[in-house]
Structure formats: C-alpha cells, structure tokens
Amino acid sequence: MGAPAQHHPRRKKAAPARPAKSRPAPAHRHKTRAAAGPPAKSKAQLERERRANLQAIQEKSRVLDQTQAKKKVTLGQLNVIKEQLVVKQDVIQNISTQLHGIDTNVHQTAQQVLQTQHSLAELKDEYARLLYTASKTANGFNQLMFLFAADSFNQFVLRLRYVRQYTEERQQQAARIRGTQVRLHEQLTGLTQQQRRKGALLNTQLSENKSLLTLKTQQDEVVQQLGQQEQGLRAELAERQQAVERLDHLIAERVREEIARAAREARLAARREALAAARARSGRRGTRSDDEPTADAPETAADRRASRVVLTPETALVASNFAGNKGRLPWPVGRGFISQRFGRHPHPVLRHVMVENRGIDIQTGAGEPVRACFDGKVLTITSIAGMNTIVMIQHGDYFTVYAKMRSVSVSDGQRVRAREVIGTVAAGSDGTAELQFQVWHNAANLNPESWLGRR
C-alpha cells in the first residue's frame, strides 16, 4: 500500500472524504415516513372507550337483573337488552379499530425491519472493505513508509490525518453496525408483541361476536313473548298515556300560575315605583296613597294572559346561567341509560302504534338517588297516578321536571343547588325503575337530551 502512495500522492489525498459517508440515512427516512399518518384514535383513547363500555355493560346487566326478578317479561327488559346490544356493538367496533391500527403498525414495522436489514447488510459490506484495505497496511512498517515517503511536511501532515481518519471511520462503522443491530432487535421485538396483541384481540372479538349473537337471540325471544301479551301492552300503553296527559296538565297549570304570579308581582312593583316617583315630585314624602297596591291585590286578566315569566335581576341571572349551560347539565341520576327518547317513536312491540314522550325516560336501579340538574327553587311537589311523586324545579323562566320518584327529600319553595339529592327513583309493578325527566322554557317543551352533558 505504501508504494502506490509514493507515486500517486494526490489520489490518497482524496481518500479522507470517504469517512464522511453516512449509511444509516435510509432507516432515518423510513422512521420519518412511519411517524406520519397516526391512527385516528390513540391507544389511550381506545382503552378509555373500552373501559367505559365495560362499565356500561355492567350497569345494564345490573338493571336487567332487577327487571328479571319478575318472571314476566317486560318492556324494561327489552330496553335493557337493546341498550346492551348498542354497547356490545360499540365494543366490537372499538376492537375493530384497534385491529386496524395494529395492522397498520405491523405493516410499517415490517417495512422498517426490511429497511434496517438492508442498511445493516450495506454497513457490513462496507466494513468488510475497510477491514480488507486496513489488512494491507496492518504492518506498522508499511504505515511508516507511507508517512515518510511524503514529498513535503504538509503532505506528511495530510497523510497522518488520513491514517487517523481511516482508523476512526472503521470504529464509527463498527458502532453504526452495533446501533443498527440493536434497532433491528427492537423492531423485531415490537413486531412480535403487536402480533401477539392482535391474536388476543381477535380472540376477544370472536367472544364478543358470540355474545352479540346471544343478545340478539334473547331480544327476539323477549319480543316474541311480549307480542303474545298484546292486550296487556295496549292496556299498559293506555294507562301510560293517561298518566302523561295528567302530568302535562299539571305542568301546564303550574307554569301558567307562575307566569301569572310573576306578571302580577312585576305589575305591582311598577305601580309602587310610579307612586313613589309621583310623591317625590309633589313633595309628599312618607305619605301613603289610597290607590297604592297591597300585597293581597288580586291577579288581573292581563296577568293571566302573559306568555312568559317576568324576570327579576336575580331570576334573570339564574335563567341566563341555565341557558349558558346547555349541553353541560349534570344527569339527574348517576347511573342508567335513556330507554325512551324525546318526541314521537314507534312502539317497540306493537305495530302501527306511535308513542310520544315529552321528556326522556332514564332507566336505572330502584332507589337510585335523583339530583337537581341546576340551581333553582322547588316549585311544586305532588303525586299523579302512573307517575308516582313529581318534583318541579324553577330556574328563572326555565323549569325541570322529575317524575316517577319513590321518595322526596325537599319541600315546596326550597332553594336547591346543582347535584343536590332531591329524592329517589321508584320501581314500577313490573320491576322496571326509570325516571321521567323534562325541561321547559316558559310554556315550551324542550328536548332534555340536548341539555344534558356527556357522561
């Protein structure tokens, strides 16, 4: 190696550019490509959804156990099974999303493994060439001849630098090989773990699909048994409609009374202010006029014709805060699910029969605590056949109604805070426990589901 260097020194000067070569670049480019395009949901999000679904399944099972305490099948059992089907389908969808994410990661990791293996082969080939070249100058005498054959001192320094760079390059190349081998081992380990997790998820998905099929079979059986009870279901529906009509009449009456009362109070307050201003202008301070309204002044026809609650500054703030929390109000019960939504719906069993719901029915466990969904004043507490005990709370010109309650822990006129317990849920004769929850704005009936927050 020394001789050629003496005759062609310029060719050896160009050699130091070789150590600057970087081989791991392809693996780095692949890492950047793999990092792009993550799955729509993170693993943590999917895990939270999985836990929430499992908790929901446990709650539905507990409610179903209560409704099945009665040997006779009921609509409450059907509602629970339907809700379990929805949750079970969410579980299966969650697993499918995880499997899709794993498939994507496995594909990306497999590509990384191939890229790393290719880079490792190139690094080893280049390292072999370096070792072969170094073996020719392994003798220290040859290296000394190469150095001292320089034509000048500057050329000697350049040749010395070249020898050092060549040695450093071999060391760096060996380090790159070791780093690539470690990375390859990590990628292969990760690939194995992902494949194991995929296998476990596939087994879980198979089990959940079997469970889903069992639930669908159970649903068909319940629907069939309920279909044989058509006469009883129609009688039950008629009783419910009568109870709903009685509740609607009660709510409308109490809202009209509150609107008229607020209109009367506003009219009397305005009259008192006008008389006080007139006395101030005439200089008759402290004297009382005969036409000044008294506290027992009767309502007028105009008061009863009012269409909305006249708000004081205090009640206006409550109403504004209530409206500002639309979509964020706490649920009136801590556990349960919506068994019947707001509006008109076909009957779950009876054909060509529509049912109308002024609020939402939340099916839960018997004795479940009922909580006020916002700060307000208890407007009325009463009982209606088919609706058990009813509590109506006023929030400015908004009203919330809680029906089908077993016990009540508040009183008329009492101020309540959000999430304060106002009573417990009653169970029907068939063992189904559900709360009827309504929201009103003046005399307008609203969809409560759009006011409640996510659980």
Automatic annotation (TrEMBL):
GO terms for molecular function: metalloendopeptidase activity. It comes from the Bacteria. Residues 1-50, 277-306 are annotated as: Disordered. Residues 233-272 form a coiled coil. It holds the Pfam family Peptidase_M23. Residues 357-448 form the M23ase beta-sheet core domain. Keywords: Coiled coil, Signal. Residues 16-25 have a biased composition (Low complexity). InterPro entries: Cell_wall_metabolism_enzyme (IPR050570), Dup_hybrid_motif (IPR011055), M23ase_b-sheet_dom (IPR016047). PANTHER family: L-ALA--D-GLU ENDOPEPTIDASE (PTHR21666:SF289), PEPTIDASE-RELATED (PTHR21666). This is Peptidase M23. It comes from Hymenobacter nivis.
